[in-house]
Design a protein that fits this description.
By secondary structure, the chain is α+β, with helices and mostly antiparallel strands. It folds into two domains: about 160 residues, FAD/NAD(P)-binding domain (3-Layer(bba) Sandwich); about 120 residues, no CATH class. Helices cover about 35% and strands about 25% of the residues. The protein contains eleven helices and 23 strands.
Length: about 400
């Protein structure tokens, strides 16, 4: 069994798998091993996300997200069609609830135009013709290129393609980080790669610190829950509220799935350990202490109202509260139509500790021996193809 691959990747989410795929496409003769601690790839955020392919109008033009979302949307859409994978090109409406939010709606339009996105300002009447249940104040934005896919189906296709090119995927193998002599410790034995890539999501900061990185960053996980809605008149397209641009969350919205089901949500509830999907699953006492300390610092010193955010998000465990929030952007949102919770997901959100601030953009750090993807939050799934190419470009630059 190989213990000295040219490239060793920790993390079998969409970033890890597309990076492995990109490496083999660029260097066909290189040996690439991808290790994933679960029994299959895509078991965390990559397989539990909303399935929305975003268009890219939320992000400032100088951000990595702005660079990659438009291209990523185009390429993932083309990939699904080429491979015969499911896609629902339903489009999205972004709505305002009052006069004050029209200013932010205009900001989103300007960002979309700056990023080369097809984003259209429409009237209330036009919005209601597209989506009879929508509520909006004076006008709305329409994004025709926002769609829905099946993340698990895409992950399976990407992994199959990577393996066919020669990537060795080792599941059930946990990476513990660097040890003396430049070796990487795993529970399947030590390895000495030519280059190491950390794309381990919720564990990314822990592994990065063993290499001397992520010194000013820590992961704070947030739980995302969606409620399925079974209404007499299902919505036809995604409906999103105007977001608070000070934080990376988009508020309670309506999502139409690839198979035309309706979900409302998500929550963004701060977690007290990394894999707090439900009950005491994945409980780790040391993680609990660290997360509690991190949240306390955010309550006291953050540059946004973290305490208010945490309280408001925790209220969303109530179906009635979720339905009430969704009722601001759509008519006939009733708790009796929302009885089934979707599988929870956890967002590996990066915090910059010195500023006690949530980091909105992608963050990578590295040197000539290793690279660490520290913040690959939404819309990383949409961005995965160009983001993986950026990672490989960075590796080439760092090794030059």
């Amino acid at each position: 069994m190989t213990t000295t691959p040219d490239y060793l990747i920790a993390g079998g989410g969409v970033v890890g798998v597309t990076t492995a795929l990109t490496l083999k496409q660029r260097y066909p003769d290189a040996s690439v091993i991808l290790m994933e601690k679960e029994s299959a790839c895509g078991q965390h955020a990559s397989g539990r996300n909303s399935g929305v392919l975003h268009a890219g109008f939320y992000y400032t033009a100088d951000s990595l997200k702005a660079r990659f979302t438009r291209i990523g949307n185009q390429r993932m859409t083309a990939y699904c069609k080429e491979k015969g994978l499911a896609i629902n090109e339903c489009g999205k409406l972004v709505v305002a609830k009052n006069q004050e939010e029209l200013e932010t709606l205009e900001t989103l339009k300007q960002r979309g135009e700056a990023n080369g996105i097809d984003i259209q300002e429409i009237t209330v009447a036009e919005a209601r013709e597209m989506e009879p249940r929508v509520r909006t104040h004076e006008r709305a934005l329409f994004s025709p290129t926002t769609s829905s896919v099946n993340p698990a189906q895409i992950m399976a296709s990407l992994e199959k393609e990577a393996v066919a090119l020669g990537v060795e995927v080792r599941t059930g193998v946990h990476c513990q980080g660097r040890v003396h002599g430049g070796r990487v410790r795993t529970d399947d034995g030590d390895m000495t790669p030519g280059y190491f890539i950390n794309a381990s999501g919720l564990q990314a900061d822990q592994i990065a610190r063993t290499f001397g990185f992520s010194e000013k960053y820590r992961i704070l996980p947030f739980k995302g829950l969606y409620l399925y809605e079974d209404a007499p008149q299902p919505v036809r397209m995604h409906i999103y509220p105007v977001p608070d641009l000070r934080n990376p969350f988009l508020g309670v919205h309506y999502t139409v799935t690839v198979d035309h089901k309706t979900k409302l949500g998500p929550t963004a509830i701060p977690c007290f350990w990394r894999e707090q999907y439900g009950g005491m699953d994945g409980f780790d006492f040391n993680e609990f202490l660290g997360m509690a300390w991190r949240q306390a610092n955010l309550v006291l010193f953050s540059n946004f109202a973290f305490k208010r955010l945490a309280i408001e998000e925790s209220r969303k465990y109530s179906r009635r509260v979720m339905a009430s929030m969704a009722g601001v952007i759509a008519t006939d949102s009733r708790p009796e139509n929302c009885r089934v919770w979707a599988k929870p997901g956890i967002r590996a959100q990066l915090v910059e500790t010195a500023r006690n601030a949530l980091v909105n953009d992608f963050v990578i750090e590295g040197d000539h021996k290793s690279l660490h993807v520290l913040n690959a939050v939404s819309p990383a799934f949409t961005c995965s193809f160009p983001f993986a190419e950026h990672i490989v470009d960075e590796i080439e630059r760092l090794r030059a």
